[in-house]
Every structure is written in C-alpha cells, then in structure tokens.
Structures
1.
Amino acid sequence: MPWLVPNIRSLERIAPSQQTGGELLRYWVESASYIMALDPENNPLSFPVLKYYNQSPSLIHALQSISAGHQYFFEPGKLRRCFEERLLSIQHVRKELDTQTNDPSLAFLTVFVLGLSSYWIALPADDPVLLHHAQAHLQGGRALIDTMLAIPVPQFSPQMLFAFGAYLYWDMACSFVIAPADLKAIDGSDFSFAVEALARMYHPILGYSAEITYVLAKVGRYCRTVEDTEQRDTSLEEELENQLRSIKPTQISAELGLLEEAYRCHGLINIYAIYRRGRVSTASPEAAPSHSTEEQSMADLPAREPSDSWELDETGLAFLEKGFYNAFDEDMAKQTLKWLDYLPLGDYQPLMLPSDEHHSSSESLLSDGDCDTSTETISDDDLQSTIRKLAIQAVHALTQVPESHPSINLHGIPLLTAGSELLAADVEERKLVTKRFRALYSFNHMTANLTALDLLQEVWAIRDLGGATSWLKVMRSKGWHLMLG
C-alpha cells in the first residue's frame, strides 16, 4: 500500500525519534489511549492490550505509531517515528492475516487503529491522497466484521461485540467523508442484530448510543449522496427523521445523555438542512436513490426469545439478555468480559447539570419537545428557526459537560454541525464552540479540531453576509476529508 508510506525524501528531512518501543507503549497506555474510550478506567485499548504484546505485533506497532504522533500533537515535521511504526504495523498485519493465526476481532483492532489514525497524521489541505485512501482500511475492517457476522448471534464473543461497536462508530464518523459508493451498506439483518445486541450493553466507545450511531451512519450516507448527486429520497428522509425523533437519551449518565442528545440534534439538523435545500430544488422520485426495504428502526426488529438467543454459554452472552443495569451480576460480568477487562459504570455518579445561563427560560436540554413539528409543512422561516434552535440546543448540551471529562473526545462531530448553523446574533454560542474545539485539541492533539475551526470561520463569514451554505458543502468545495472522530 504505497499511499500509506510518506515520500522517502520527506522522511529524510525529519529528525528521528530516540524513544524506544517500550517508552512509546508506556506513553500509549498512560496518556494517548485516553482518546479511544469514554472512560479511562474502562478502556480495553489501554493496559489490557499489553497481554497481546507477543500475540499481535501489528497492534502494538499501531499503538506505538499513534503515541509517536500524539506526543507531538501530530505535527507534520515530527512524524518520522510515527510513520516507521505504522509501516511495521502494516507489514505485521499482512502476515497475521495471511497465516490466520489470530482471532479476526484482534486483527480488526489493528485495522481500526490504522484506519482512524490515517486521518490524524496529515492535514486535510496538505495530504488529501492519504486521507482519501483511508477508506481502504475501512473496507478492510468491514471485511473482518463480515467474517464475524457470519457467526450466529448467540455465539458472539465479547471481543466481537467490542469490534462491532468500534466499527459502527468508525463507519458513522466516516459516512460524511467517504462517497457512499465506497461504503458498504449497513442495513442488512445480520448487522441490525449485531446493533441490537450492542444496544443492550455499555460499550467503551459508544457508551449506550449504539442505536443512534447506527441511524446516524445512514444519515451521513444519505446527506453525502444528496450533496454529490442533488437527488433526494423524501420517504427515506421521513424514515430517518422519525427514527431520530424516537430515540431517548440515556438517563444512566448525565454526560453521556447530553452527548446522545447532541448527536440526535446533529442528525436532525442535517436532515432538516436537506429539507431547506429541497425547497429550492427537489429531484423526481424516479431519480432519487433507492434504499433497502430492510432498513428499519431497532424497535421494528423481530423479537428474539431468550431461550433461542441469549442462553448462557461459553461465550458469556447471558449478560446481553439482562442488560448491564438490569439485574446485573458483576461476578458473571468479570468472567464474560475478561478478554478486554472493562466493566459497566455501575457506581457512576451522575453530573449535576448547571443552569442554562444564556437561555434560562428554555426547556430542559434533554427534552425532545423541539423536534415534534413536521418540517415539510412549516414555512421557510420556521424551518430555519427549528434548525437554529436545535443547533443552540446541541451547543449548550455539549458545553455543559466539563472540559476535563473524557467524553468530550466525541464532541467534534455534533459540535461542527451545530456550530455551522449559528447566526451572527449567536455570539455567545459561537464563542462556546470555539472554546470547546480548542479544548478538544488540547485533549486529543488532533489537528482536525483546528481545521474544523477554520471551516466554521468560513461558514460563519458566508452566513453573516446573507449567504446560504453548509459545512459539508464548504468542505467538499475544498476537497477536504475532515474526520473528527
């Protein structure tokens, strides 16, 4: 894969790192791994991966590659060691896949880490080829996921469920970036049942948001299709809107509930922006892209009897039947989750939400009263008002979470969508968005956060002059592939 290796002449100008692999691995488990999970204390990609030091050299080199870049904020002039470790990881994972000596879920972790980091090691404006070809890792990851999906649901192992959740997040985060033709569909029944299983549990990357992440992956595909083809499918729009409006944020954790609410606003804003765009030009039904009849909300999935699907066996899937917070047996959990050593946040203390200083008379940020109006029947002004209200709602939901909370690592995607819909009058909200993106850069060291700020400044300038645009349109016009996950 020549596109994964930087130009040799460029490498020769970069000073080599003097750190050993052991030092890079220690930096990973103690610092850099925080960017890969919602809770540092429940992070299967931190200390638990050390047990695979000899079993999966490709994973170890991939993690060391991220460490080598993360400690220098992925600064282009200091990535020689990052690329060296990355090349070693690719060489090893090829051998591991050829010999098929490892569990596919373990090989998936390497591909997952390499795929995400493809976006972290180059600036969108400076290296579009590298970012564009990051889709190859996504396709390779999906091939491994399909291998696991071929296994009957009752035999899903905990490591497979972790891989499913990781892929689901990865797919959602890339759905706006990669052309739909280059993304494999996720609406098959096998994938739906995997999501159903994830919806019953806490996942270190998704938290409790498997269902909304699944819907948003389809929203991203559709929005990118409309952007590329100017063709709409109004029935699919209505279906996606109804799915988003029906999802209720978790009440188990205040921070994760606020995060889910912001992501729901993110999805609705993008759907409503298409409505707004469609007031000008709507494609004929014959030209609209088709969508599978298998697409359905999680609530419509066929019921599965516990005696048929969730019997206790060697794979430890009985915890899925009960759920992590319903009659949960911690002793059983410690046995079933020993592969990744993560447990649910059973004794988690919810965040006490501060009052809304800027909109003290507004409804609770976790209510869905803002989303009950059918946007197909309201006026243009009311539609714009609805979008703006959702944007403000999302910004305030996200910024109520302290900057020190690790869940802010997942704030970038909804923050960009909501921020792009703020008007000149929303001075305070624009300041909050800017401040949070800078906090994100400080937390995860990813230059994409600064690129997102540049993108927002351009969108705001156009809007302040009375123009109509979106962050996706501006990003596409620049040829960028901005992935904030």
2.
Amino acid sequence: MLVTVMRGPRSFTAEDVVEIGAHGGVVAVKRVLETLLAQDGIRLAEPGEFTKRAFLNGRIDLMQAEAVIDLIRSKSDRAFAVAMKQAEGTLSKRIRELRQSLIELLAHVEVNIDYPEHDVAEMTNAYIRERCGKAVEEIEKLLKTAKEGKILREGIVTAIVGRPNVGKSSLLNALTRENKAIVTDIPGTTRDIIEEYVTINGIPLRLLDTAGIRETTDVVERIGVERSRSALEEADLILFVLNGSEPLHEDELELLGKLKDRRMIVIVNKSDLPQQIELEPIKAIVPEESIVRMSVKAEQGLDDLEGAISALFFEGQLESHDLTYVSNVRHITLLKQAQQSLRDAIEATEAGIPIDIIQIDIRNAWEQLGELIGDAVGESLIDQIFSQFCLGK
C-alpha cells in the first residue's frame, strides 16, 4: 500500500490531500474504504466534489472545471485535445482579455460621467463604438467555432436509412469494424435501432442503424419502421443507402425528395455487381459530390465516404493549429448574450442616448462574460454543473 500526502495549496484542490494506493484487487480497496468510512468526519465524495473544491478555492475557473467533464466524455482524440486546451485555460484567457478591455472602457465612461465638463460626447461615443466593435468581432470569432466544437463534443447524430436489404447493417459493421448488427438476406431482419459510436477523420459519429423503411403488415417490423422515421427527425446527418444492382424504387425517390434540405450523403451500395440504378433522378435532388459509390461487402469506397462526411461538416479538414473551440451550450448562450449587449451599446451611441444608460449595456456584457469563467455565477448553477460529474472527479 502506498500513501501519498499532498499539502495545500499545491494540490489540485489547493487543500491538504491524502491519496491511498491499495494493491491486491477490488476486495483490498473495498476493505480500506470501509475502514476509512468508519472514522468520524470521513464520507464519500459527492459527484465532482474535487473539481468543485478546486474551482471554489481559485485553482481553476468554471470553464476549466467544465472541461474536465469534456475530458471524461471525449469520444475522439480531437475532442480530447480540445477539452485539454480548455482545461489548460486557453479559452478562459481569451475571455479574461475581453473582460479586461471592457473594464477599461467602463472606467473611461465612468470618468466622463463624473466629470462631464471634460467630456466631448462625440469623441466618447466614437471610442465606445470602436472598443465595443472590437469586442463584438472577437466574440464572433469564438462563435464561429461553436458548430465544430459542438460536433467534436457531442458527435454527429447519423441515421443510416434505406429499404430492406440495401446494406445498412453491413455499412454499420464496416464503419465500426465489428459485427454489431445481424446481416441476412431476409427483409426486415433489423427490427430496432442499433446505436454505435465511431470516429471518422477525428469526427465522432453516433451511428443509428435503422429498420428498412417500407410498408409492412408485420406489427413488430412496423414499429421498427416508425422508429426509423423518428431517427430521421433527430439526425444531423443522413446516410441514405441504395442498392445499385437494382432500379431505383419510387418510394426511395419520394423519400429523397422529402429529405433534400437535410445534410445527406447518398450511398450507392453493391457497386461490385452489375449496375441497374439510374443516377440522374438522384442528381436532380442531391449534389453529385454527396453521392458515393460503395461495395460494403468488398470493402470498397469507405475512404470516399469518410472524405464526403468531413467535407460536409468541416470543408474537408479541421484547423490543426488552433484548438480553441467553443463547444458548451452554456458558453455559446452567454457569448451571444454578451455580443448582443455590446451591439445594443453601439446602437445606443448612434441614437444619441445618454452615456450613463449606454454604460448599463457594457456592464451587462462584462458580467455575462464573467458568468462564463465563474466570476459572477449563482450557487444553484454551480451545483447543477458539478452534479454532472462522476464520483471521484
């Protein structure tokens, strides 16, 4: 057994911490834990308590604390790298720089309010527009990363749809490199939605293999078809699988037409067999670059599919030199609110509104940015954030 003593304030929580490393398997660990819990004043940690203590003691800010959750939940190397950057404080630093520029602006405005005889309203309004405009631009840069960041954090919900026996389950197995779904020549084999996570070019995909969409009298299969239609509504990306060795069915063309405004890649499967499908009606609905020929059975075309998915969401590649992504919904919401407050301040200067009223909008933006890093946040929100952690973090 190894006992390590870490003295505050150099520990993660900035408090005195004792770590016990017990050898011998689960039974030994359990008995050590039982012995400790029998002592007065010792209890099990609450979810996220260690990270919460680190935040409350000023070791990390709230954005860094939330990044710990993202590290735990990372579904790809890229998502892990982005979360690590946030945990190191890269994003927090940019928020603090923004707040510093706004507090300097507020100080300038305050002087003009206290000494109006030295104020030239037109010059002050121009200064406010300039500084607020720069802050709006900086927030806009961060918000532009929100779509990619959210995808890296949560994954792309991807529905694999099509008629029975076109190769949907085979595609799932090929992408996961495992036999997750049962594959037979019998129509209606897949009755329920099968869910799996895969990573393609650093992008996590939450794959939903759905039941073949067709009219059926089988009660169980009909339920599966309805669930498939529900999965279509939920999906960020649709992989529409067609059988290239047979003519295009009327109901397939009809469904393609209904989904034409969605992010979709049409996979013409079984390209290793003599082709009977006519592509012109499909090209009238879907861009040619979103049509991929494959033979899942012969393992042909997987690279083309992965490239099409990357191009659809990230214009072919992710920026490798900058991992400062905004991915948290709370962060996105507060950034948008701060941006709007700054725009309101700019509009107010143009409308000739008194400077002490304009100051309120600038202060609102400063406080909203403060909520991001935890400088101005309620206890209930803190409890809600840390309740999402697992024990021991």
